[in-house]
Each structure stands twice: as structure tokens, then as C-alpha cells.
Amino acid sequence: GVFLYNHLQQKVRNAEALAQKYKQQQEALSAQLQVVYEHRSRLERSLQKERGEHKKTKEDFLVYKLEAQEALNKEKQDSMNRYGALSSQHKILKNQHDDVKKQLLDLQLQHNSLKLEHRKSLETHSQKLAQLQQEKDSEVTNLQDTVFKLREESKLLRKAHQEVHSQLLSAQAQMEEFRQLKEALQKMPGLR
Q: Coiled-coil ranges per the record (predicted)?
């Protein structure tokens, strides 16, 4: 019985020591668990904070994305409007360019026609001028011949005039003689 009692006491002491050991381990584990809980709590708070910041960042990003999309749509619309205006202006300028090109072509054709007409007119004018020069030269030659003939005729007429004047003077002298003779005859009594 003593042996059994000692044996049981030894077991009790061993059990108490083991219980003490387990208690210490439990306290250590409890302390570690407390640290883990606190760490977990801090991590949860940090995670919550990160989630809040992530949510806020996500909301800010969504707002930014929406604003960027609206700005992009507005810019796209403005670009389309500008493109439409530039396209209309380009079409107008192209039409004006075609009109100016057509006018230039018409003016070139008109210029070529006028150039040809001017050349023909110049040739005709040159021919007429040459003909008129020839006629003028011929007329001058004829006039020179006429002047020469008229001078000759004038010389002949002067000569004839002198002869007629001489004859006239002679006739006047004869008339004077006839008159004197007539007067003398009239004065004679027998002839009356």
C-alpha cells in the first residue's frame, strides 16, 4: 500500500509537473496567441484601411475614367466637327481650284486664239503696209514724173507766153500804126 501510495504520489507529482508544464506552455501559447490576435487585429485594421483606400482609389479612378471618357468623347466630337469643317472647306477650296483651273484653261485658249489672231493681223498689216509703201513709192514716182512734165510744160508755157507777149506787143505796135494811119487818112480831105 505504501509502495502503491508512493507510486501514486509520484504519478501525481509527475502529473502536477506535467500540468504545470502544460500550463506554462498554455500561458506561453496564450501570450503568443494574444500577440497573434493583436497582430491579426492590426492586419485587419490595416487591411480595412487598405480596402477603404482601395475603394476610394477605385472610386477616384472610376470618376477619373468617366471624366477622361467624357473629355475623350468631347475631344472626339470636336475633332469630328473640325474634320467636318475642314472637309467642307477643302471641298469649297477644291471647287474654287477647279474653277480657277478652268478659267486659266479658258484664258490660255483665249490667249492662244488672240495670239494667233494678232499674228494674222500683224501679217495682214505688214502686207498692207508693204502694199501701201509700194503704192506710195509708185505714186511718188508718178508725182515726180508729173512734176517733171509740169516743169517742162511750164517752161514751154513761159516760152509760149513770151512769144505771145512779143506778138501782142508787135500787134499793139501795128495797131498803133494802123490807128495813126487811120487818123492821118481821116485828116486828108480827098479821102473823106
A: 5-60, 90-142
Alpha-carbon distance of 136 to 183, in angstroms, equals: 66
> Which amino acid belongs to residue 38?
E
User: Can you tell me which residue has the cell 500683224?
Assistant: 122
CA–CA dist 180, 174 (Å, integer): 10
76-104 tens-digit pLDDT: 999 999 999 999 999 999 999 999 999 99
Q: Three cell numbers at 122?
A: 500683224
Contacts of 192 (CB under 8 A, 6+ apart): 186
User: Are the C-beta atoms of residues 173 and 167 closer than 8 Å to each other?
Assistant: no
Cell of 173: 505796135
Burial group, residue 159, by CB count within 10 angstroms (0-12, 13-18, 19+): exposed
Question: Residues 192, 186: contact at Cβ < 8 Å?
Answer: yes
Q: pLDDT tens, 61-78?
A: 999 999 999 999 999 999
191: Cβ–Cβ under 8 A, 6 or more apart, which residues? Answer: 185
**What mean pLDDT is predicted for residues 174-181?**
92
